[in-house]
């Protein structure tokens, strides 16, 4: 072997050994966590709670960077351009990593292939709510009402591709109705018009609607999960209320760029698990109505399988509705 070949072999060996060495010292500087939504929203709030705890476990600050736009796909796309070293991660979401596949014809990433999963962070139940003036007091009565008033009924949502949009599409599909949908620029304006009685009903995650339910300014028919939600224990589940097919939760998941070394992912996963085991974190998430993931879901492999299943679930629903968005 000549000198050139020896130098090339030595360089290759050095590169091969660099990944384990870097992983061994990880993290040696602050980590950036991209939140693909504006500050103050439910995903941002959950992320900040978890990031604070992870900072203590990792011995380095986990700094939040809000990169909003295009239903969260702008921030998700940003992560795909970052170095695969664990120093930039993100919190993905039902919209960014499941519904986006069918919603955005020009999506610039593949949610199932262009990221390295770290673990599921939390799920949040969907609540079926309506204006107080709606002449129905139970889910069964609501289903009967909307079937009888399909041509004039309407549901509000926070914009195309939002959780309140896609989850109501699924509800309407299961019931077998196609009412008018009324888009808003966010959950706040949609909720304001629901409270005012300007729109008929809204599907959204518990964290967004629980305050109004508790205040009695809107009706809550059912929560779309297998067990009652800790934030609204008096609201029945959809199974209890007669619509067991409507089981849907939204979720937040932690992801890294594709190709991030396994030892780095392990350290990030361990920090996530430590955060979710912390009593203070659990209490704060419970106040939001958030549910913790199973042990399998919080694993990288479990999250990968979960995302693939969610894409398979949402794609036909959105395509059947003929809805598309731009990014």
Structure, explained:
There is one protein chain. The protein has 327 residues and is of the alpha/beta class. Helix content is 45%, strand content 19%. Strands 1, 2, 3, 4, 5, 6, 7, 8, 9 and 10 form a ten-stranded mixed sheet that branches. α6 links the parallel β5 and β6. α2 packs across α9 and α4 packs across α11. The model has no long low-confidence stretch (mean pLDDT 91).
Distance between the termini: 53 Å
The CATH C-level name of the largest domain is: Alpha Beta
The mean pLDDT is 91
Please report the total strand number as a whole number.
Answer: 10
- How many individual domains? 2
CATH homologous superfamily annotation of the largest domain: Bordetella uptake gene, domain 1
CATH architecture field of the largest domain? 3-Layer(aba) Sandwich
Number of helices: 11
Poorly predicted regions: none
The proportion of residues in beta strands is 15-25%
Strand/helix succession:
HEHEHEHEHEHEHEHEEHHEH
Any idea of the CATH topology of the largest domain?
D-Maltodextrin-Binding Protein, domain 2
Pfam families: TctC
Keywords: Signal
Signal peptide: 1-23
Protein name: Tripartite tricarboxylate transporter substrate binding protein BugD
